[in-house]
Design a protein that fits this description.
The protein is an alpha/beta fold and 287 residues long. Helix content is 32%, strand content 29%. It has helices at 45-52, 72-75, 93-104, 113-116, 128-140, 158-173, 208-212, 225-234, 253-262, 276-286; strands at residues 5-16, 19-30, 34-38, 60-65, 78-81, 146-150, 177-182, 193-198, 201-206, 216-221, 240-242, 245-249, 268-273. The strands form 3 sheets. The protein has a 6-stranded mixed beta sheet, sandwiched between helices. Helix 3 packs parallel to helix 5 (128-140).
């Protein structure tokens, strides 16, 4: 039996004057699953989230939250952690949690050991990881049925990111539907399903394997990586730099070899399986 939809958009569009920020997007989140909303900065992810939550009105299309409109009554059954965390920086951890719990009419959550020594510290004086932990506690205190997280692990260290993802996974295992945006492509592996946006439009959806499909890439090995990158970029070849490693998705190796030879660059090229980030680049260039 398919899990019920707890959050969905039906051909949602949002325009700001002549600019279309979200263009006819349809997507859904089911109970008990983690859906990753991926896309570059400016792809329309945050605008779509604000539409899903009823914080922005749609220009066209409709949104449903827990089977109804995203009004105050339905939003009371969801948890939301925005990019700015939604905390009061001039209140302590304990005061922020008490205020949030009072707003929902629930008991103040127990502060975990990792935050206990900071309970009376102003949120503005905390490290970012501790601020995010506090925001998660506030969002989960009323036991929401839907959890919407906008870049929840941005700017925190690897250990804190892993701990936050443990929390996200535990919520989904308890039946909560989770929508999460991230710009860390490796975090796509934590999601049950992915939705990719580019230029305000939905360009792909499904599992990571579904989206990457049979897309191939080429790894380019050279001693002069900076010059090699510049040559390929100047030739309008879709090149990605990861540290000093150069990769080129969805391009005939002969095209790469020709561009490098004309520039007098010696390099070894090797076909490899494309990553989700490389597939996203291919889809974005196709628009």
């Amino acid at each position: 039996m398919t899990a019920p939809e707890v959050l969905c958009a039906h051909r949602v569009t949002r325009r700001f004057g002549d600019f279309t920020a979200v263009d006819a997007v349809s997507m859904a989140v089911n109970s008990g699953e983690v859906v990753g909303l991926l896309g570059a900065n400016g792809a329309g992810k945050t605008t779509l989230i604000r539409l899903l939550l009823g914080l922005l009105a749609t220009t066209e299309g409709t949104v449903e939250l827990l089977g109804g409109p995203p009004d105050r009554a339905h939003r009371a059954r969801m948890g939301y952690v925005p990019q700015n965390l939604g905390l009061y920086r001039d209140l302590t951890v304990a005061e922020n949690l008490a205020f949030s719990a009072g707003s929902y009419g629930t008991a103040v959550p127990e502060i975990p050991e990792a935050l206990r020594q900071s309970r009376n510290t102003l949120v503005g004086d905390l490290a970012l990881g501790a601020q995010r932990q506090t925001a998660f506690l506030a969002a989960l205190a009323h036991e929401p049925e839907v959890l919407v997280l906008d870049e929840p692990t941005s700017g925190v260290d690897a250990l804190s990111r892993a701990e936050l993802w443990d929390t996200i996974r535990a919520q989904a295992d308890n039946g909560v539907g989770v929508l999460v945006t991230t710009h860390y492509m490796e975090e796509a592996q934590h999601c049950d399903r992915l939705v990719l946006m580019s230029g305000g439009a939905l360009v792909a959806s499904g599992s990571e394997d579904d989206i990457v499909g049979d897309t191939r890439a080429v790894a380019v090995h050279t001693d002069d990586w900076a010059h090699t990158f510049a040559v390929l970029n100047a030739a309008d070849i879709p090149v990605i730099l990861d540290g000093t490693a150069i990769r080129v998705p969805d391009t005939d190796p002969a095209t790469i070899t020709s561009a490098l030879s004309e520039a007098g660059v010696e390099a070894e090229i090797r076909p490899v399986t494309a990553t989700i980030e490389e597939r996203m680049l291919v889809l974005a260039r196709a628009r």
